[in-house]
Amino acid sequence: MNKKLKWGVIGAGGIAYRRTIPEGIIPARNATLIAVMDVNKEVAKKVGEEFGVKWYTKEKDLIKEPDIEAVYIATPAYLHFSQAIECLKANKHVLIEKPMALKIDQCHKIIQLGKYRNLKIGVDFMMRFHGVHEKIKEMIKEGKLGRPVMARAQLSCWYPKIKGAWRQIPKFGGGGSLIDMGSHCIDIIEFIFGSKVKEVFCFAETVVQKYSVEDTAIMTVKLKNGAIGIVDACFSIPDNSSLNVLEIYGSKGSVLAKGTIGQSSKGEAIAYLEKKQKIYDAKQIREVSYKEEIKFSPKNIYLSQIESFSDAVLKNKKVLVSGEDGLWNQKIIEAAYKSAKEKKVIVLMD
Questions:
Q1: Considering the entire predicted model, what is its pTM?
Q2: Which residues make Cβ contacts (< 8 Å) with residue 138, sequence separation at least 6?
Q3: Which of 71, 156, 59 is nearest to 121 (CA)?
Q4: Which long-range contacts (CB under 8 A, 24 or more apart) does 255-261 make?
Q5: Within this chain, do residues 177 and 291 fall inside the same structural domain, yes or no?
Q6: Radius of gyration in angstroms for the set of CA atoms belonging to the chain, rounded to a whole number
Q7: Do 77 and 148 fall within a single domain?
């Protein structure tokens, strides 16, 4: 019988209840849920009873649970650092919702403690596991799109002012639509192109909503491989008006995807490619344009992430979306906010 990693969840409502627990931990071949925690007693009790596990209202009680080997942290962003540190001190591996922490030095401290304790750290950029994104990355690697030229990733929604919503309070969320959704978009662009961001320029404004964080953000980046990336992330566009598109362009073609950026494991993508074709007496060659639907193996992104992290712990393998990835993403986001404030390009690497 295969060994299963024993999980605890801090922050049992929200994304944990909607997605990660039912779609990821529960059906995983190599994971089992031991306990959940939420400061809201009704939420903790509901989730615990629904999945037949222990439930707590204090994080310290879950963290000291001896059977738990790994903790998924799905609380508001400002709590990630302190909770990750406490879990690591208790010798628990951690999978942290993005952002990993609100400050770069906090990300460093989490990574350092994980290394000192010989514990695994993962960050929840689950969209890397989408079948379409993996397929496009493969096409880029094989040269089917030629030299990478440009990418655009969009993730927008309507998020009106809500009393007490932590994402709308700067000190709790670290920002607005850019850090909340744009962080996923830039991670996907880097993942697919296999190249890191070199330079950043950003506009971040509050255009529609009545709160202190930005509701509209555009980030343009230059990657180390020379390609350009564009991210648009808004809390100011009606849900049905945003297609959440991913556009990948290269010197030999493009891939246009819809519905793959977000919480869904579905979506669709079309490739537009150029193919060399011999004509007449085969002495002439011309480029012929054609399009084809991207075929991909449907799989749940939350399940894939939980199984991947569990495997990394159980088999002592490299975490595919690591603490270092979370740190780097936070560096990009902080550079973007600095760019928006100072109205200039921020250089991250030479």
A1: 0.94
A2: none
A3: 71
A4: 255/136, 255/139, 255/145, 255/294, 257/132, 257/136, 257/294, 260/127, 260/130, 260/132, 260/133, 261/127, 261/153, 261/154, 261/155, 261/184, 261/185, 261/188
A5: yes
A6: 21
A7: no
Residues sharing a CB contact under 8 Å with residue 346, sequence separation 6 or more, in sequence order: 199, 200, 201, 335, 336, 338, 339
Q: Which helix (H) or strand (E) holds 83?
A: helix 80-89
Domain membership flag for residue 324 = no
Q: What is the pLDDT along the chain (350 residues), one digit of tens a residue?
A: 689 999 999 999 999 999 999 999 999 999 999 999 999 999 999 999 999 999 999 999 999 999 999 999 999 999 999 999 999 999 999 999 999 999 999 999 999 999 999 999 999 999 999 999 999 999 999 999 999 999 999 999 999 999 999 999 999 999 999 999 999 999 999 999 999 999 999 999 999 999 999 999 999 999 999 999 999 999 999 999 999 999 999 999 999 999 999 999 999 999 999 876 555 555 555 666 779 999 988 899 999 999 999 999 999 999 999 999 999 999 999 999 999 999 999 999 98
Cα 291 to Cα 172: distance, rounded to the nearest angstrom: 45
- DSSP letters spanning 332-348: HHHHHHHHHHHTS-EE-
Same domain, 191 and 64: no
Clarify whether residues 180 and 229 are in a common domain.
yes
The continuous run of DSSP H or E covering 132 comes out as: helix 131-141
Strands 253-258 and 245-250: antiparallel
Dihedral sign for Cα 309, 310, 311, 315, please: positive
Show the tokens assigned to 297: 């193996």
Residue-range definition of the domain harbouring residue 13: 5-124+302-319
Contact 167, 177 (CB under 8 A): no
Token pair recorded at residue 52: 């037949």
